[in-house]
Amino acid sequence: MADPRGLPRASSALLQLAAIVLAVLLTTLVLLAAHAPPVAAYLNIVLGAVGSWNVAANVLVSWVPLLLATSGLLVTFTAGLWNIGIEGQITLGAVFTTWVLRGLQGSSVDPGLAIVLSIAAGIAGGALWALLAGALKTFGGVNEIFGGLGLNFVASALNLWLIFGPWKRPGVASMSGTVPFVKELWLPTLSAQSRLAPAAVAIALAAVAIVYVLLQGTHFGLRLKAVGKNPSSAYLLGVPTWQHMMISFALCGVCAGLAGAVQVTAVYHRLIPSISSGYGYLGLMVGMLSGYRAALAALVALFFAALNVGSIQLPIVLKQDSSLAGVLQGTLVLFVLLAQGVRQRLARERTARRRPS
Amino acid sequence: MSFEVVLVGLAGVLTAAAPIIFAVIGETVSERAGVTNLSMNGKILLSAMGGFAVALATNSLLLGFLAGAAIGGLVALLLAFASITLRQSQVAVGFVLTLLCRDLSYFLGNPIMGATAPRLSNLPVPGLREVPVLGVLLFRQDLMTYLSFVLIVAAWLYIFRTRPGLMLRGIGERPAAAYVRGANVNRLRYLYTIAGGAIAGLAGPVYSLSVKAGWKGTISGLDGIGWIALAITIFGGWNPFRAALGAYLFALLQWLGLVLQPALPGVPSQVLQVAPFPLMILTLLFVNIGNAEWVERSLSRLPEPIRRRVARALRALNATPPAALGTPFEKE
Predict the structure, then answer these.
(1) Are A142 and B285 in contact (CB < 8 Å)?
(2) Are B234 and A146 an interchain contact pair (Cβ–Cβ within 8 Å)?
(3) What interface predicted TM-score (ipTM) does this complex get?
């Protein structure tokens, strides 16, 4: 079935395919420009992502924060908001989690409860930072992109100050972060060597499922879509616009805070300078590439996580920078956006031909 | 600190602000035409790497700078095509381009990390260099810093004092009216987006061939500057003079951070380097808050003399973006 005014489904699919082929072609050209053997590079990425149980587990480890960030962003995207401040929201989540864990470490509180409390604190931290960006937008008229960006820098400054100041390692402060927590406060992993915590995967899957239901199956999701499509008509129809925007910021902050909490409790077991690791920005890309659909976003996030983990091999094996993953991700999203534009343009021209003016 | 040292420091602030000036003026031109080019952060990195690589290969500074401008123009062309011809969201495409350009610069720049390329040297102006105070401050700079001074004035004159400048403002404010007056809105938008991109593209090589000479990959210290430049464009209210003021204030704050470092041993250097960013949010808040409806309402409750003064202060700071910024133009 085709959209009555759109293109037949076959040509739409063909355009999507062309976008992907072009993205790979362009990335291959980039590889050739860097005098790198393309086939070997791609093979290394694939092997680096699925070559062993260990690296495959690492893909899941990287999938969790990316999926959490993406889930949150689907909510803000639906409300028509560009929550670029998500990087800072992840950072604040990590900071709050570390804060509570530091306080409870060595106390009589049960370690399990301490972990739960610290994750709750992370959620609060992420939501707080997101609400700040939301308040700047709703009450200060500051575009969420720039308010969010500023808050990202503030969050990373706060993080660095804590690592090099009050929370520094005894002796010398360093970029390697704070002192690791005692093993009891680590989120339990599959095995002693693995960094994959089943609970973290469960949290991420739950988050994306909840967001999917919220956006597709509830009245709230419908109102949020109305706000995103056209805030002023939504307002005229009786949807409290700014309240919905604030709620969507808060929900995204919750997911981002969770991502930060997971990075601290399950992956690094301490606070490190680049704790958000760019997952927030990457989540924005995943959202765009998946056309803001939750189910597809989960798969795209998995693919992007695999690219990131797979490309870690490049510097070791081929002496090439691991940013190739970003190049491929970027060209993919760019060409998919361009293909979407071409498709819409063709559809417009078809309609124009049918109704000559 | 002696007066002479402060003066040399301030001259350094003018040099350090030069690349930001190029970025901010370029973006101002593009946004005046109605196109937000969000790719700035990645564009600066890519043009810094590209300009450095070309200067390294050809041993020519001129070709290095031209390469930077070409990269900036090319990225802008992509954005113009996607947003004007294909009508995709400027924000979405710009954001993708910013990440893509960043990763491209790190990947392609990997082999030339740490190499030594020619570096722009100072070019004191004969005669004027000896003028007390101003000589040190203004006339012992390098060529690109002089060019940044000229650019500020030239951009202002072009935008506000020429006929094509009037048309430029027109296609950003009321494209339909400009169209009726005979302007080819979309072609002009292409032109100004690419021109603005090329000007902003100069910022990269000004860093890699002068201000922060060299290419050091992720530790080049350039990641983030583009975002600041975009914020300064808003602070500048799309006016070259005010935008330049923002760039100089930013460079001054960064310099103060460095100077004050020894006096504040408890504060790690990384924190002082980001100190301008919270201030940026605050200024953006002040620039925008006058547009918020509740401000109007609460102001009316203040006693009259205070109300008038606050309202005037807000109006002075307030900046309204070009009315058609971010929206595609379609002739009916």
Answers:
(1) yes
(2) yes
(3) 0.91
